[in-house]
Amino acid sequence: MDPMTKMWVSFIGIGLMALAAALITFARLKTKGWIRFVLSLAAFVMLLAGLVYGVAAMA
After folding, report:
1. pTM for the complete prediction?
2. Domain assignment of residue 44, given as a range
């Protein structure tokens, strides 16, 4: 993989992880019930996608 491509892939992974952290913080502090569950699930999916992008950037 081209070094510039690896850079952008890693930036996407970092961004997804940061967005997941912000979303889970918002969900836990400001929401209740099923909305909290849906936002937490979305944050978990973004965290997993960020992990995949991070691993792909290292390969």
Report:
1. 0.89
2. 3-58
Q: Which of 13, 8, 7, 11 shows the shortest CA–CA distance to 54?
A: 13
Calpha distance 31→53 (Å, rounded): 29
Written as tens digits, the pLDDT of the chain (59 aa) is: 889 999 999 999 999 999 999 999 999 999 999 999 999 999 999 999 999 999 999 98
* 33: CB partners within 8 A, 6+ apart: none
Q: What is the number of domains present in the chain?
A: 1
- Residue 14, amino acid: I
**Residue at token pair 């209740």:** 32
